[in-house]
Amino acid sequence: QHEIVTEGYIEKADPGLTVRFPLKDRPGESLLVWTTTPWTLTSNVAAAVGPELTYLKVRQGDEFLYLSRGAVKMLSGAYEVVGELPGRDLEGWAYLGPFDDLPANQHPGGWSEPGLRRLFARIPESAVQAHRVVLWDAVGEAEGTGIVHIAPGCGAEDFQLHKQYDLPVVAPLDENGVYLDGFGWLSGRHVSEVTGPIVDDLRARGRFYRLEEYTHRYPQCWRCATPLVFRLVDEWYIGMDGLRGRLMDITDQIRWIPEFGRDRELDWLRNMHDWMISKKRYWGLALPIWECAACGHFDVIGSREELQARAVAGWEVFDGHSPHRPYIDAVKVACSACGAVAERIKDVGNPWLDAGIVSFSTLRYGDDMDYWRKWFPADFITESFPGQFRNWFYSLLTMAAALERQPATRTVLGFATLLGEDGRAMHKSWGNYIEFNEAADNIGADVMRWMYSQQRYDADLLFGYHHADETRRQFLLPLWNVYTFFVTYARLDGWRPGPVKTRHSESLLDRWILARLQQLIGQVTDALDDYHVYKATGPVEAFLDDLSNWYVRRSRRRFWKSEGDADKQAAYATLYEVLVTLTKLLAPFVPFVTEQMYQNLVSSVTPKASRSDSVHHCDWPAVDPDRVDEALLADMDAARTVVTLGHAVRAAANLKVRQPLGRVVVVAPPEKRERLSHNAALILDELNVKALEFAADEAELVTYKLMPDNRALGPRFGALFPRVRAALAAVEPGAAVAALRSAGALTLDVDGQAVTLGAAPATLTFWYKIDSEDNVCGHDRGRVLISSAPVAEFDLCVSTNTGDWVQHTIGLSAYVGQTVELRFQAETDANLLSDFFVDDVAITP
């Protein structure tokens, strides 16, 4: 039940049938009873009411009916309320059942398959004799009629009422869902075929009252979607109440990823029932339970040796076979209680019981405790979490708690579900199902593995071809393109790995990419050590972007030049080292492409004695502290930020990179100027400008004009707003900007009243005018100005959110990785202003 029913409920429309249960001692009076499973009426034993609910006695024509006050809306036709009483006053009322003529309902103790009847033989009453009203707190007032029909052989809750009130049990179905003998005209018919005939029979006998369609949650098979029915069977359980506290203590000792996994497991443990460990199947773990038919005692056999020692028959049939049916069934043992011959029960174990003992059964727990202690507990287990809290995680916890009082694992990593790209579960009938072999052929195993690796554990993975194409474009193609670039030019130049020491390269780019590689090794290692695979994929893709779009692009001329000087050799050696290290670093993620790269880069050119046969036999890359250069990384990051922003301004102003510009002016503090100066030549070359200049403050470049946001401030200040505008106009704009950036707000004196602006978003707009007359973006004399001073969010005005604003914002934000300001000016021509003049442009991550 745990692994099927709880994960397989659907919204389903069923017939909601209301029937009459005539009261024995009250002629002309009936209980109105409602059910959505008419087949269970054949096994009715009792009717339940809520003790605290109010029930009405209503007259309809010549009959009197009882139902809850909240359910009167379901009555058909006119009625008259003639009385009311609390539910507890109905307790014990006897009634006539809907199918009392069936032999099964006249048998003492109830009726079931022969193997179950002994369990209820002590109950003297038959179902017909037991028909009475019982109290049940779970009865609701509004659903149905407020009177619930109870069939202990057809439902788990009903069976609990059997235990509470010692009711007989009528279980009508065999293992195929077919009615047993004893049910008259229903015997031999499948449960799915009887709803219509049962309704017709009740109608013919005057028991029918009403039929309507009712939508409710109903269990279905999680594999084939066939609706399920509850059927009473004799199973074996582990009592869990004695283990509950211990299990919860152990759960707290485990690291759960994501963290909410712990709360979900604890919630399951608080509400779990006894654990059913048996199954009515043939193949599976043969439960080592031998039951004595003579006295009812059972023995649990702990080992093959114990079984052989206690066997009184059948050992020769079993000897030499694994402990599975049919051979294990042949072994008989002497009952330890009475000495009679005991046979193994025919049930096999619940599959999760088998899965739960893997920490012991596979680690020689029974015969080599030293070996077991070496490997127990596991460092880490992982499974999809929607159902495993009550399945594998639960079974592992239970076995470890029972046997060793400690966790079976130190870490549990759960992850969400794989769905179709449309967000629905994958089904062939819905057209979103992709079979694995099809996906492997059309998408590629490495692409799929990277998709899985990228996914956050707490979010469902939407799997499909569009997602795969995007993954291939962002990750696999950049990796393969860099590899192809290297292999192509290395072959043309006849380059082979040699004694060149990359750590001594004179190239700033070489030293930078190797420092970035060390940084990446640390990032990926830390992420994997912490079991957060998806946190490793972002740094990998960022590194590939740096490698492809910065290192290789900036170094292409070094590979292209005809002379084979030291600089060219250093470039080859550097890129070779990066690629070989990447194959090792990425091998667990994308094993196939990295193996192909390794075989070509290493195996094909390196003597066998000095290399591993496979990338998967190589040691994991370790960070080399001597090659970590944080200052160099910071210098290059600062330079690339300026370059990125410069390209963004060029794009916004429609200035092609091939068009030389006079200078780039960067607003930066002294320490950042020094850092940028280290890479000045690179910045100038990338931006195609002649000079790099610095400004200590943007005020050196621009003047300000303060504009209040009328739509935001007008409703706020009302009649006071004109004087607020006047006070704002009297403030020196530069001082206002300084106040806003330092204090987060601008305070004005309005007729002796302090008024604060800027505390909320979108209260002021800053218009900038470039002072220098020769700075005209989009013309030969133009230049680009870049300011890195952060802009507070409230400095933006939503009133400027026009089409142009959106266009500029989208165009600029694609390049930016930190809070920046970009500003440029255009000529006063109206068309140019509409295209290029931008308010205070603030781009945030």
Explain what you see.
With 845 residues, the chain is an alpha/beta fold. It has 5 domains: 5-219, Valyl/Leucyl/Isoleucyl-tRNA synthetase, editing domain (Isoleucyl-tRNA Synthetase, domain 2, Alpha-Beta Complex), CATH 3.90.740.10; 237-244 and 256-376, HUPs (Rossmann fold); 418-463, no CATH class; 470-628, Orthogonal Bundle (Isoleucyl-tRNA Synthetase, Domain 1); 631-845, no CATH class. It is built from 28 helices and 34 strands. The chain has a 6-stranded mixed β-sheet, with helices on one face. Helix 16 runs antiparallel to helix 19, helix 17 (508-529) crosses helix 21 (630-652) and helix 21 (630-652) packs parallel to helix 23. The two termini are 48 Å apart.
Which labels suit this protein?
18% strand; 845 residues; alpha/beta; disordered N terminus; 5-stranded antiparallel sheet; 28 helices; 5 domains; disordered C terminus
